[in-house]
Amino acid sequence: MKEFDIIIIGGGLSGSSTALYLSKKGYSVLIIEKETVQNIKPCAGGMASSMKKFIPLDIEKVIENKIRNVEFTWKASDHVIADLSGESPFWIIKREKLDLLLLDEAVKYGTEILRPAKVETISKENEKWTINIRNKCKYRSEFLVIADGSQSHWAGYFNLGPKQPKFANTIALRLKGLGNIPKNSVRFEFGFVKNGFAWGFPLKESVNIGLGTFINNSLLDNEEINNKIIKSFGFEDLSFKVIKKKLRIWNGFHKLNGDKVLAVGDAASLCDPFLAEGIRPALISSFYAAESIDQYLSQRIDNLNNYSKTINNEWGKSMVWGRRIAQVFYRFPKTGYQLGVKRKTAPKRIAQILSGEMSYEDIAKRVIKRLLTRS
Ligand SMILES: Cc1cc2nc3c(=O)[nH]c(=O)nc-3n(C[C@H](O)[C@H](O)[C@H](O)COP(=O)(O)OP(=O)(O)OC[C@H]3O[C@@H](n4cnc5c(N)ncnc54)[C@H](O)[C@@H]3O)c2cc1C
Fold first, then answer.
1. In the chain, N or C: fewer CB atoms in 10 Å?
2. Would you say the CB of residue 161 lies under 6 angstroms from ligand 1?
């Protein structure tokens, strides 16, 4: 039986960044990851540069593109372009590289990784978590972090997050070349995807294209439309491979911790239900999870309740509005595009959301204030 202070289930972005924080503080950490190293992760890699304050190492070498413009289209026309002001506030990173960079750094600080490994059972014996892994010895820890992503089995097992998680359906593909997307731009394409949108985020020499539907459980099975979208991004060769993924999205305020156990990232259902932004909440939740566990282990607190409160405050309050906007926008996308994107100030606001400068809550409050002062 091997013993650790903390065991983390899942070695993606949230698992690896939580491990890095905790091992840097001198705690013993084990990550249990079910997959071998992945070559491509279904993630377009768009992240607000302001998030670097939540990453405890320099990530310059995994930044593929620094974005200056955000383009919006409606069915490949009716362009709107928003300039991102100042130092590039939005970056495109290669997710598989970022995850690996964080993992390698965590290992330098003593984190151990077990991969590929599948957890069979978890139980509590004498105040410690006991984890059984197929064909391996038992592992024990004082704390448990659930970071097993959108298909999380363990979040539900410990009653962390919503009882009935909500999912966006997504398709991801990576194509060689930049198509017709200018190097320092990202493109959001509305109108083709039912109840959602498509995005093209350029890396150095390729583009991450994604399609997502966010309400009504709509599917992305219309090949003709999907091909039209790929062509609208400037690609003629349609012999690409796609990765389909159900992405767990934010669905209300919920408890994200139990007794010495908590959930982070997608496993905690934190992904933005309007724009599928999941890197930011993965990093924020990992930071606060590590902080709470550190405080508990150093006997400054005696439960993890603060973690759930902080995440609900720092992220949930904005996501309430993100969900409301998604429900209206994706139900009436044409009106949404005219009122939400084509309005003079709208592109700037969306750019501010992407850069982390403003939250959906800030924007909603502004709109309400404007309506009240008008009436
Ligand atoms: C198509 C697509 C495009 C996206 N684009 C963006 C974007 O541009 N910007 C953005 O901010 N967000 C984006 N997102 C969202 C973002 O990718 C996720 O929110 C983010 O990956 C969450 O990180 P995570 O570590 O919580 O989960 P994951 O990255 O999914 O990591 C979970 C890890 O747990 C492992 N695991 C699962 N089950 C087990 C188990 N039982 N035992 C052990 N290990 C297990 C998995 O193998 C995986 O390594 C996108 C998502 C999709 C699907």
1. C
2. no
**Residue 283: CB within 6 Å of ligand 1?**
no
For ligand 1, whether the C-beta of 266 sits within 6 Å is yes
- Ligand 1 nearest atom to the CA of residue 9, by list position: 43
**Measured from the CB, is residue 32 less than 6 Å from ligand 1?**
yes
According to DSSP, the residues that pair with 91 across neighbouring strands are: 47, 66
Tokens standing for residue 294: 């550190």
Q: State if residue 15 touches ligand 1 by the CB under 6 angstroms criterion.
A: yes
DSSP 199-257: EEEE-SSEEEEEEEE-STT-----HHHHHHHHHHTT--------EEEEEEE--S----E
According to CATH, the topology of domain 2-63+92-164+251-325 is: FAD/NAD(P)-binding domain (3.50.50)
Q: Is the CB of 19 under 6 A from ligand 1?
A: no
Q: Is 279 in the pocket of ligand 1 (CB under 6 A)?
A: yes
Nearest CA to ligand 1 atom 2: 43
Q: Over its length of 375 residues, how does the chain's per-residue pLDDT go in tens digits?
A: 899 999 999 999 999 999 999 999 999 999 999 999 878 899 999 999 989 999 999 999 999 999 998 999 999 999 998 888 777 788 999 999 999 999 999 999 999 999 999 899 999 998 999 999 987 789 999 999 999 999 999 999 999 999 999 999 999 999 999 999 998 999 999 999 999 999 999 999 999 999 999 998 888 888 888 999 999 999 998 888 899 999 999 999 999 999 999 999 999 999 999 999 999 999 999 999 999 999 999 999 999 999 999 999 999 999 999 999 999 989 999 988 888 888 888 777 877 888 888 888 888 777 777 666 765
CA of 150 to the centre of ligand 1 (A): 6
Phi, psi of 220 (to 5 degrees): -115, 50
Question: Which is the closest atom of ligand 1 to the Cα of 243?
Answer: 1
Whether residue 42 has its Cβ less than 6 Å from ligand 1 = yes
pTM summary value: 0.96
Burial 319-347 (b: 16+ CB within 10 A, else e): bbbbbebbbebbeebeebbeebbeeeebb
What is the best residue among 40, 174, 266, 283 to mutate for testing ligand 1's pocket, by most ligand atoms within 8 Å of CB?
Answer: 266
